[in-house]
Amino acid sequence: MKRQGMDHGRVGTLVEAIRDDILYGVYRAGEWLKQIDLQERYEANRFEVREALVELRNRRLVEHKVNSGFRVAAPDPEELLHLKAVRTILETGAADPVVGLATAADLDDLERLAARFEQAIETADPPTRAELNFAFHRRLYDIAANPVLAGLIRDMRERGQSGTTGRWFTLAGLRLSAQEHHAMVAAIRARDAAALRQLIDRHINRR
Questions:
Q1: SS3 of 69, please?
Q2: 122, 157, 152: which is closest to 136 by C-alpha?
Q3: If DSSP codes are grouped into helix, strand and coil, which group holds residue 70?
Q4: How far is the CA of 189 from the CAs of 70, 105, 113, 128, 184, in angstroms?
Q5: Among 64, 109, 135, 197, which is least packed by CB within 10 angstroms?
Q6: pLDDT band with cut points at 50, 70 and 90 for residue 8
């Protein structure tokens, strides 16, 4: 039964909009999400905002505190280590199919996205840089032609994003990430799955 005042299609769109803002750094780990502010920002009613926050809690991107409200989830250090370990298994496991299936068009797309991220380091705000970084990695793992694997990788990356530290807060770290993006594309172009696995491992686990 449809709840009065709530459009379920609109709720789905709202979930994705808030999720993107969390992933791209508009909202930071531990930040409280006031429903009235979300209603104004996303032009939604309170029923839609509440349903969207519940769905984001189910995805473990936000957490609910009784009598306090919702805030962006902040994974503890041990959980972040576990997430990185799972990401390493999944993402390095994608290296062989990515190298085996990548077309010239795929490589051109990756080169373009890597270049856009590199340029954004000097010219764009943090949310834009984060968005471009996600776009590069989504495109990379889509090449593996395994939507289950790509979905798991996306979920693990999203769960760990609010706890991102280290390189994302220095220009040197961002530039190193950009260099690694270009190196990944070069490894794929050379059909070198072993090199790609090493680069992915380093990219995930370097502090």
A1: strand
A2: 157
A3: strand
A4: 45, 11, 15, 27, 9
A5: 64
A6: low
* Per-residue pLDDT reduced to its tens digit, 121-156: 999 988 899 899 999 999 999 999 999 999 999 999
Please, what is the average pLDDT of the chain? 90
Given a cut of 90, whether residue 111 has pLDDT beyond it is yes
Q: How far apart are alpha carbons 153 and 86 in whole angstroms?
A: 9
CATH topology for 8-72 is Arc Repressor Mutant, subunit A (1.10.10)
Give me the amino acid identity at 126.
P
CATH 1.10.10.10 location in the chain: 8-72
Quick one: tokens of 154?
């996306």
CATH fold of 77-205 reads Four Helix Bundle (Hemerythrin (Met), subunit A) (1.20.120)
Secondary-structure percent of the chain, ordered helix, strand, coil, rounded to 5: 70, 5, 25
Label residues 81-90 b or e (16+ Cβ within 10 Å = b). eebeebbbeb
Non-local (6+) Cβ contacts of 46 within 8 A are 35, 39
pLDDT at residue number 195: 98
Residue with the two structure tokens 């992933």: 23
Q: Inform me whether the pLDDT recorded for 206 exceeds 60.
A: yes
Distance CA 7, CA 25 (A): 27
Sign of CA dihedral 72, 77, 82, 88: positive
Structure tokens at 11: 């709720």
Distance CA 81, CA 96 (A): 24
